[in-house]
Amino acid sequence: MAEVSVHERASSFEYRDVVVDAAAGTITCSYHCAGVEFCEVAMFDADVDLNAAGVESGAVLYHLLAGLSYYKAFAARAIELGDHEVGDAAGALLAGALQSGLGEFASRNQLDLRDVAMSGGRPVRRVELPASERGPLVPFGGGIDSIVTVTELAVDADEALFVLSNGSERFAAIERPASRTGLPIVRCRRRLDDKILSSRASGWLDGHVPVTAILSSLALVAAIAQRRSSVVMSNERSASSPNLVVDGRAVNHQWSKSLACEELLRCALDERLANGPAYFSALRDRSELWVASAFARHPEYFREFMSCNRAFLQDPSKRATTWCGTCDKCLFTNLVLAPFLPRSVLDSVFSGRAPLDDPLRRADLEILVGLTASPKPFECVGDADECATALVAAAARPDRADQHHLHELAARCATRPLDEVLVASGPTNAIAHAARDLL
């Protein structure tokens, strides 16, 4: 097997085959770079008919986006698209996912991917789909965002959840709240090539990829196959905000949850399919605090959900079964819920390890609320103004009167009134906003 050092970029990354096997319920994607062959497989439930019109066209979008999981190993200077039906809109989606979806990866590895050349591909033959027969598909990750979409906004009697897992592994942090919804679940298993899982051991480049965009493409394949009306995401407005700007380029850990990615994916879908499923976020015009306030009305989920990233580690032996209480995601979740829930309730949720209760987390809080020059963490967390507003509101609660570290930080925060932050920001995208109103 050829090896490329972390300081050497390969010359070309090739998109090879994408094979839809309806009998097996699989989509197999293959790639080649620096003498290495990569292959990954998406495996769908039996009730996802991969023979349905439009599935093969939708599978190409999955093939394009999933390829970035392997492209990153060698950060090739050119991408060859082969003979796939790509089209201008899908090409723009891939370029956006490459330059912005891999923005964090590029920044951490001191790369500039704007020099990557793309070649190949052929025009798209647009497929006309029959009218949809079923309700929306809601990708579900078990966090407060997707729980709120299901409990507060989606009202279609025929809706279903879409749950993506890695190989045969199911994550308890998703399964518990998913079961609580009582909704049917459409499942897909994504089995990555084993070689990419050991990138660092092989001396290859590694880093964050636009996972939500890849998940979205698989959810769209399932929606096309089941003739569903839409794929309804749960990405709020702060997902569009970058973590930092490097040499004039915005670097956003959540790019694949952003409005920019949503619009690129919607255009690529429309280029390929007439009468295809709608794709939008039900929470696009909402703040993280609005989501937290809505979630606070559903105590039935308090002991079921778990947004700690350590609950989703690839190695089951290292996977957390309770909130770790030490990561930035735990701290942020605790912070945005704190204005709306009693301290005792949150202490119970975090099994006695609520991060806000720990004065040693002061420095991490200063970053979240924007009191330092450090950018917000490379995690799915909200903007500094939202975090500052949450901190001020939490510190004002009588049950936090003794938490002097919160009061001191709150006194330094310049914030908007909580009620103002809880108001929807208005239609940030006419298509998405109109679609959300149909729920």
Describe the structure.
With 439 residues, this protein is of the alpha/beta class. Helix content is 35%, strand content 15%. The protein contains 17 helices and 14 strands. An 8-stranded mixed beta sheet has the order 5-4-1-2-3-9-8-7, with helices on both faces. It has a two-stranded parallel ribbon with strand order 6-13. A two-stranded parallel ribbon has the order 10-14. A hairpin with a 2-residue loop joins β2 and β3. α1 packs antiparallel against α8, α3 runs antiparallel to α9 and α14 crosses α15. The longest helix has 15 residues. It starts with 12 loop residues before the first strand and ends with a helix. The N terminus and C terminus are likely disordered.
Major β-sheet strand ordering: 5-4-1-2-3-9-8-7
Number of helices: 17
The class by helix and strand makeup works out as: alpha/beta
Give the strand content. Answer: 15-25%
Identify low-pLDDT runs. 1-6, 429-439
Gyration radius over CA: 22 Å
Q: What helical percentage do the residues reach?
A: 25-40%
**Overall outline:** globular
**β-strand number:** 14
For the record, give the distance between the C-alpha atoms at the N and C termini, rounded to a whole number: 51 Å
User: Mean pLDDT score, rounded?
Assistant: 91
What composes the largest sheet? 8 strands, mixed
Which properties best describe this structure?
439 residues, alpha/beta, two-stranded parallel ribbon, 15% strand, globular
